[in-house]
Amino acid sequence: MTRYLNRLSDYFFVIARTANVRSGVADIEYVRSQNVFSSKKK
């Protein structure tokens, strides 16, 4: 089941990228933020 969901998510990712290119919409690049992924409490 996990393999199926992984392939399905890959398929949707490719479809979304294709739709963006055909519509002329630029990709939104992922920017990692230290604050979001930090598990340290102050």
Overall description:
The chain has 42 residues and is mainly α. It has a domain at 1-25. The chain contains 2 helices and no strands. It has helices spanning 2-23, 34-37. It is flat, with a radius of gyration of 16 Å. It comes from Paenibacillus pini JCM 16418. This is Cob(I)alamin adenosyltransferase.
Principal-axes geometry comes out as flat
> What oligomeric state do the depicted chains represent?
single chain
Report how far the terminal alpha carbons are from each other. Answer: 40 Å
Overall mean pLDDT stands at 83
Secondary-structure element pattern, one letter each: HH
Major beta sheet, specifics?
Answer: none
Number of strand segments: 0
**Which structural class should the secondary elements be placed in?**
mainly alpha
- The proportion of strand residues reads under 5%
CA radius of gyration is: 16 Å
Poorly predicted runs are: none
| Helical stretch tally | 2
Query: How helical, in percent, are the residues?
Result: 55-70%
Can you summarize this structure?
This is Cob(I)alamin adenosyltransferase. Keywords: Transferase. The protein is mainly α.
What is the element layout, followed by pairings?
Blueprint (H helix, E strand, L loop, with lengths): L1 H22 L10 H4 L5
Q: Which properties best describe this structure?
A:
42 residues; 2 helices; mainly alpha
